[in-house]
Structure formats: structure tokens, C-alpha cells
Design a protein that fits this description.
150 residues, mainly alpha, single chain
């Protein structure tokens, strides 16, 4: 493969890498519908993509409520679940333009996926001290009950 003779300084680095970078091995959602030959094929792909997305969203919803009850209890379940869904919606609204910008500027969506993974890990680490303190308090109260009974 030959690269044009124009100096690299006149082209952006992303354009340079776009010429020598191999095609992605995964099928991104916007690539999924690009080469549809008929309306039926487009509809089938759209239904498949929608089913996968709905399943993933349903898993998040079904596992979110028991996690909230485990961490915060039943007392404020409606408020905390509402705040979780609000933050989920804000995250979806903000992350899409950021990922699109990063994809257009950097030439790949890899950085957006990596950034979202780092944010999820940071969120888990923020929750970890709360869970440790709750476990320690529960264990101390159980030990106090055992000493009172004996």
C-alpha cells in the first residue's frame, strides 16, 4: 500500500492512520445498516439490534433493583431508583455526542469505549468503601448479639 506523496504535516494524524489502519473486526451499530439491499433485510437487522439492546437494558434494570435494596434498603427504593434512571439517561445523552466527537477526531471508537469502561470502574470503586463499612457494621452488630446471648 502506498501513501500519497504529500507531507504528513499537511494532513492530520488521523487521516494518516486511517489510510494504513486495517478495518475493524467488530460490526458497529452504524455499520450494521450501511449495506442493506432491501427493506426486509434492513428491518430484520433493526429487529435483531433492538432485541439485543432491549435484553441488555432489561438485565441492567432487573439487577439494579436488588443491588439498590442490598446497599440502601427498602426505605428509599423509589427515590434512589429514580435517581439511578436519571443518571443513566443523562449518561446516555452526554456519552453519545462525546463518543461521536472522539470517533470523528481520533478516527476510531476505541477511545470512547475505553473511557466508558474507566468511568464504570471508577463508579464501582466509589461504591466500594460504602459496602465495606456496611459489612463491618453488620458484622460488629452480629458479634455484639452473640456476646449478649452468651
Amino acid at each position: 500500500m502506498t501513501i500519497a506523496t504529500a507531507p504528513i504535516a499537511k494532513r492530520s494524524l488521523c487521516q494518516y492512520h486511517a489510510r494504513i489502519r486495517p478495518a475493524p473486526s467488530i460490526l458497529l451499530p452504524h455499520q450494521m445498516f450501511r449495506d442493506c439491499n432491501s427493506v426486509n433485510e434492513f428491518f430484520n437487522r433493526l429487529c435483531t439490534f433492538s432485541a439485543i439492546y432491549t435484553f441488555m437494558y432489561g438485565v441492567n434494570t432487573c439487577l439494579g433493583i436488588p443491588a439498590i435494596v442490598e446497599v440502601h434498603g427498602n426505605k428509599q427504593l423509589a427515590l434512589i431508583y429514580g435517581l439511578e434512571l436519571l443518571s443513566y439517561g443523562i449518561g446516555n445523552s452526554i456519552s453519545t455526542p462525546i463518543a461521536t466527537y472522539m470517533g470523528s477526531e481520533l478516527g476510531a471508537y476505541k477511545m470512547g469505549v475505553q473511557l466508558s469502561g474507566v468511568i464504570v470502574i471508577i463508579g464501582g470503586l466509589i461504591l466500594l468503601p460504602h459496602l465495606i463499612i456496611k459489612y463491618v457494621c453488620k458484622r460488629q452488630s452480629a458479634d455484639m448479639k452473640n456476646t449478649e446471648e452468651s
